[in-house]
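Task: sequence design from structure.
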């Protein structure tokens, strides 16, 4: 829950303070101050006991040795790679999609995208509604796999399919251009992403031979980063354009403010 909690502090607490006049430099000062504290925590809480493992450590040599035996673990990981790519794509695409659709200083919180009543500032919408929903979805879902059985291929397929479905369904709800539904979409999409994350980590620990886990984790993370890169790229702008196609309103999808 560390990552979503960090998002929550930066985007909700500091975001709210920023709305009331907090200088932007505080974001940088706060995060810079957190780094040495985080380093100290990692150093003091790291495992002290040296445990012999088959992989004989970590590094390029271990990774390369696992790649030589790729048939032993890569085919098993392909569905998990695909799920990680999709989850990270949706995670990263949520931000440009939000800012390219609700692209005005105010948001119609009640009613359809054409509504010009019940408006709230965009900064308050993101800090008090959208970002908390995002953080809650990711935080809660990461703990769910602890209670699930990953020793069955059938169950793993169902769980992984559920995570992918939630990620895609959450993204799809953004097409409705409803502020409260978009916040719900952030919860659902990030629940799917966090669920995939926790489920994949548990599966790798159980289903991948110990000597190949280091490579499996690294390649899994790399595929996820590729998905995140795609989600922040030009494709995200194209998706926002599709959402707003033929639907341009005073406070939503304002034509002159689209980042095309």
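Answer:
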């Amino acid at each position: 829950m560390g990552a979503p909690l960090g998002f929550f502090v930066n985007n909700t607490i500091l975001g709210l303070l920023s709305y009331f006049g907090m200088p932007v430099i505080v974001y940088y000062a706060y995060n810079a101050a957190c780094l040495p504290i985080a380093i100290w925590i990692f150093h003091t809480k790291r495992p002290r006991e040296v445990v012999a493992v088959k992989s004989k450590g970590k590094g390029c040599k271990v990774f390369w040795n696992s790649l030589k035996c790729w048939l032993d673990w890569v085919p098993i990981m392909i569905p998990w790679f695909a799920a990680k790519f999709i989850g990270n794509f949706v995670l990263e695409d949520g931000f440009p999609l939000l800012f390219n659709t609700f692209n005005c200083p105010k948001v119609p919180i009640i009613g359809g995208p054409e509504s010009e009543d019940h408006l709230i500032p965009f900064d308050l919408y993101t800090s008090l509604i959208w970002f908390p929903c995002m953080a809650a979805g990711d935080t809660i879902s990461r703990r769910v796999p602890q209670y699930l059985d990953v020793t069955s291929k059938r169950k793993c397929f169902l769980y992984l399919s559920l995570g992918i479905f939630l990620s895609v369904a959450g993204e799809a709800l953004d097409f409705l251009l409803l502020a409260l539904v978009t916040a719900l979409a952030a919860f659902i999409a990030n629940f799917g992403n966090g669920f995939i994350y926790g489920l994949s980590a548990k599966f790798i620990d159980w289903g991948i031979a110990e000597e190949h886990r280091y490579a499996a984790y690294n390649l899994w993370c790399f595929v996820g980063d590729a998905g995140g890169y795609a989600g922040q790229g030009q494709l995200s702008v194209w998706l926002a354009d599709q959402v707003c196609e033929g639907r341009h309103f005073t406070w939503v999808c304002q034509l002159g403010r689209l980042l095309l």
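The beta strands are 106-108, 119-121.
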